[in-house]
Amino acid sequence: HLYKKNGFYYLVLAHGGTEEFHAVSIFRSREITGPYESNPENPILTHRDLPYEHPITSVGHASLIQRPAGDWWLVYHGKRPVEPLTEPYQTMSYPLGRETMLSPVDWSGDWPVVNPQGPVGRAMPRHRLPERVERAPGSAGYRDEFTGNSLDMGWTFIREPETEWFELDPEAGVLRMRARPVRLEEPGNPSFLGRRMEQTEFIASALLSVDEPQGGMAAGVTLFREQHRYLAVALAHGAGRDRVLVLEKNGETAPERVLASSDLPESLEGAPIRLRVTGERNRYRFEFALADEA
């Protein structure tokens, strides 16, 4: 990113890769074409020299922003690790992926200083928000009864829908989604609505009923990391029976596989089912129950 301030062009660069050695440095020049001098305190933001167990790691890809009040902030990517998946220690797990983070900046001198109250050049788990900035509600305690005429802004798609495959029924408090022959791992727009995970410990559930089930159809709740990595608990119809499946895909060439399955008695087929996922840091529990038992 390039900024002009006090007669200088400032060039902000990310370097060191996008993982634990990620860093942000800044350079300046009187001319946009250079040559650029390096900030003696570069990098202005990094956690590459901190232990991997630090609450925040892999910080980088930064942008400097100035609010109307005149104060400066740095917006950047970072990750929150959880404990190793293997013993002895080999790698950390990042179930939340890269998140958007914010740190205060003092740019009263020649060079911007990130987190000037200390520790300088570090991302902190918490900062006091700027004045007159509303705190986003987040997903804690979130519940959607689908009684509005449009979807809440917190919902997201996998790629932009090109056809109308969902509709709201505010009077009934129902979201209807049409099954389509586009799978989660395919490069298209599947019938998917999601909310971003904000914490590693959570409970998410949905009440589901399937109208006119067809062979090969599945509907449920998924933990979607990316196109070729996800977990799901789904109500599937095939061979004339309804089953609840726990599915996993873990890699571009890995096939989707069934981790667990349970046949529904014929007397329960067509009844509303409650599907639930419980997150426990880097472990997940999948459950189902009849609607009146959930």
Structure notes:
By secondary structure, this protein is mostly beta strands. It is 0% helix and 41% strand. The protein has no helices and 18 strands. The strands form five sheets. Strands 1, 2, 3, 4 and 5 form a five-stranded antiparallel beta sheet that branches. Strands 6-7-8-9 form a four-stranded antiparallel beta sheet, with no helix packed on it. The model has no long low-confidence stretch (mean pLDDT 88).
Summarize the structure.
It is built from no helices and 18 strands. With 294 residues, it is mainly beta.
Key descriptive features of the protein:
single chain, 294 residues, mainly beta, five-stranded antiparallel beta sheet
Lay out the secondary structure.
Elements: E1 2-5, E2 8-15, E3 23-29, E4 37-38, E5 45-46, E6 57-66, E7 72-79, E8 99-106, E9 113-114, E10 166-169, E11 174-177, E12 201-208, E13 217-226, E14 229-238, E15 241-250, E16 257-263, E17 273-280, E18 283-290
Antiparallel strand pairs: 1-2, 2-3, 3-4, 3-5, 6-7, 7-8, 8-9, 10-11, 12-17, 13-14, 14-15, 15-16, 17-18
Q: Let me know the number of strands.
A: 18
Sheet with the most strands, sense and barrel status: 5 strands, antiparallel
Helix content: under 10%
Radius of gyration based on Cα positions: 24 Å
Helix-strand makeup class: mainly beta
User: What general outline do the C-alpha atoms trace?
Assistant: elongated
Strand proportion: 35-45%
Secondary-structure element pattern, one letter each: EEEEEEEEEEEEEEEEEE
Mean pLDDT: 88
